[in-house]
Each structure stands twice: as structure tokens, then as C-alpha cells.
Amino acid sequence: MSTYARQAAETAHTAQNVALPSSLDEAVEALAAMPGAVPVAGGTDLMTAVNSGLLRPDALVGLGRISEIRGWQYADGAALLGAGLTHARMGRPDFAALIPALAAAARSAGPPQIRNAGTLGGNIASAAPTGDALPVLAALEASVIVAGPEGDRELPVSHLLTGMDPLRPGELLAFVRIPLLHAPQTFLKATGRTGPGRAVASVALVVDPARRQVRCSVGAVAPVPLRPLEAEQWVAGLIDWDGERSLAPEACTAFGEYVAAACIPDQEGVELPPAAVQLRRTVAALSRRALGRALA
Predict the structure, then answer these.
(1) What is the Cα–Cα distance from 81 to 233, expressed in whole angstroms?
(2) Which phi and psi (to 5°) does residue 272 adopt?
């Protein structure tokens, strides 16, 4: 159990019971036995909610002893990532060679103490709009594997984030499945200050030559990551997939503006406030640069 989880149990005065399972099966059993229990791994989001008075868990199920969710493996052309992978671990070079965009997002996820404690599963489960991993997972069209009393089930990560198929009572986010695309992919984000910080806007982009697709996801500007599908289809139609797969700078600029207008649309009869105009410019710049880097 992490230091953050111990603090939640010992100093927050909110948990009546604490379970420390050593396997996924034991964790699912603990959640079923203690209705209202909250799973905790790194605790970075949990402790913020507890300290601000937004959460008063009846019990905690610590996930720090479950080794099976702290690594990754290969399965059927995909990477199966444990939900307990920390941002610090995902930021290392060996992981970056596997999924570069997710590694870049992990390296930007706050200061070292946050990256050392925060986990991939926590980023998904908390579903904060500024979660750095979320637009990457959306652009990669990842899925999650959920363990529960009735067995495992797999669903697109977008269904979980949008509430189309939420976690059910007693279920636990166990793994994330990401297709290994061997395709150029980038992640960029803008913050309100220098260095790692909370995103004002972020963009993940994948150029997939096998499917002749460009997939773009914009984070932090809405409650969930946004996919500008029409902009994706438009720019994919401009790329010579059988040639050098390059675009003129003007096309990249137009793509950025297309993405920004789709994610921050005009309001009929109402002028956009200055903050929205600036945010649109930021999204346009990030999208243009992400596409340029992926095609370089």
C-alpha cells in the first residue's frame, strides 16, 4: 500500500476498514464484501478529494500489493498494460519505444512525486478532464479490462469516460489494452506555467498508415477527450499514403484550425469570449505541431 493510501487510512479519519489484497481476485472479493469501499493505488486524486471534503470513503481497498497490475505484456498484437503502472514507469525509454505518445503524456503528468505515485488506472478512473493519458488512449482507441464479481469484461475506454458503460458495483479497473500500431504518434500539451503542470489543452495524434487514418484527440477543453472526426477524415484524404506521407505547412495550419473550430465551436449570434478565442488558438497550434511532428 502506498504512502498516500496509508495517509488516507491513518490521518483522514474516513475509513473504517482497510483491505490489502495481494491479487485481483482478492481485491474484487474485498470490494464485494465492503459496499462503499474505494480502491486506492497512488492516492494522488483520492487524497485531494478527501482533504477537500468531497469524499468520505467507508472503506479502502489498497492495490499496492497486486503485482500483476504493475507491469505489461504482449497479447494478440496489443500491449496489455496493468492499471497499476505509474507515470514514472511509463515515462522510461523502454516503454517510450513501445507507446511513445503515452510515455510523453506520462512524463508531463506533474512533478516527480505525482509521477512516482499516480497510476494509469487512477488517471482513467478519476476521469479528470485534464488527465494527460486520456486523449492518448482515445487517439489510440484503447480498451479497458474490468474485473468484477461476474468475471472480466472489456469495453472501449471512451465508453467508460463518457459514462456509456460505467463501472458496476464491485468492479475494478485491471488492465488497458492498446493496439501496437508501429505508427507515428505524438502528444503535446499547453500549461498555464512552465514545467510539468495541469493542462490548459492537450492533443494526441496518430498517423496510422495501415488503416490510412489520422486520429486526433483533444484533452482538457471539455469534460471528456474530443475526437474531431471530420477534421481527421479531411486531412487523411490529403496524405499520399503510398508516397512520402508529407503535407505542405498550409495544410497543417488548416488542419489545426479545423480541429480547434470543431472542439471550440462558434455560438450562433454570440461572440466568443476572449478566453475561448485564446483556447481555440492554443488548440490550433498544438494540433498543427502534432501533425507536423508525426509526419516528419
Answers:
(1) 29
(2) -65, 135
Q: Which residues, at least 6 apart from 33, have a Cβ–Cβ distance to it below 8 Å?
A: 19
CA distances from 4 to 31, 44, 51, 170 (A): 19, 7, 12, 22
Q: Which residues contact 189 (CB under 8 A, 6 or more apart)?
A: 105, 108, 132, 199, 200, 201, 202, 203, 219, 220, 286
Using alpha carbons only, how large is the chain's radius of gyration in Å?
20
β-pairing verdict for 37-40 and 59-62:
parallel
Query: 227-249: per-residue pLDDT in tens?
Result: 999 999 999 999 999 998 999 99
Nearest CA to 148 among 67, 27, 36, 57? Answer: 27
pTM of the model: 0.88
- What distance separates the 2 farthest-apart alpha carbons in the chain? 63
Q: Which three cell numbers stand for residue 36?
A: 462503499
What confidence tens digit (pLDDT) does each residue in 269-296 have? Answer: 889 999 999 999 999 999 999 999 999 9
pLDDT tens digits, 60-81: 999 999 999 999 999 888 999 9
Q: What are phi and psi of 291, to 5 degrees?
A: -65, -45
Of 263, 266, 270, the closest CA to residue 287 belongs to 263
Q: Is the pLDDT of residue 5 over 60?
A: no
What phi and psi, each to the nearest 5 degrees, are found at residue 160? Answer: -70, -45
Rounded distance between C-alpha atoms, residue 155 and residue 157, angstroms: 6
